[in-house]
Design brief:
mainly alpha; two-stranded antiparallel sheet; 6 helices
């Protein structure tokens, strides 16, 4: 990873962390648990999902980097990180079904949701700041976006967080949101 790639990832993580924390700061338990509609996640469920997904993706990346490269190919988005970002941004209006393992289950009390997110983000940030492994050498499939290299998976961590931050903002703007 080049110094500018590393700095870009760290900036993305810091920016998405700040906007997420701003979106949830000061919310009451009733606000955190409010569902705007059936089958829609509450703010608490979004927070849990973000944390579990980030922790899982980073663990998966670290395991993948310890394996032999999965493919001689660089990935479906080789050399097109900005196009991948654009595609992910465009997909915001599409509802994806999260894999069972990262769906919210009420794993933690409400008071632990932000600290769990902060712990996952600190871990991700530490990995990015310190790794000297070639993140481009190993690609793994994403269920919607095809074969991504490990650097691109790290891009998605920040973008995924921001996608759910936008969902949180939508919940807060809904007419029945408790005030």
């Amino acid at each position: 990873m080049t110094p500018s790639e590393r700095e870009g990832l760290l900036q993305d993580l810091d920016q998405t962390r700040e906007t997420l924390l701003h979106a949830v700061r000061g919310l009451s338990p009733q606000q955190l648990e409010y569902h705007e509609a059936d089958q829609r996640w509450s703010i608490a469920e979004n927070l849990e999902h973000i944390s579990v997904a980030e922790h899982g993706i980073l663990s998966w990346i670290q395991n993948a980097l310890g394996d032999a490269p999965a493919s001689a190919l660089r990935g479906d988005w080789d050399g097109r990180d900005d196009a991948l970002r654009d595609k992910f941004e465009e997909s915001r209006h599409i509802q994806f079904q999260a894999p069972e393992v990262i769906r919210p289950t009420g794993r933690w009390p409400l008071a632990e949701l932000v600290p769990k997110f902060e712990a996952a983000r600190t871990r991700t940030r530490g990995f990015i700041a310190s790794t000297d492994v070639d993140l481009r050498r190993n690609s793994r499939p994403h269920p919607k976006f095809g074969l991504l290299d490990c650097y691109q998976w790290l891009i998605l961590i920040g973008m995924h967080c921001d996608r759910h931050r936008a969902q949180i903002e939508k919940v807060k703007a809904s007419p029945g949101f408790p005030h």
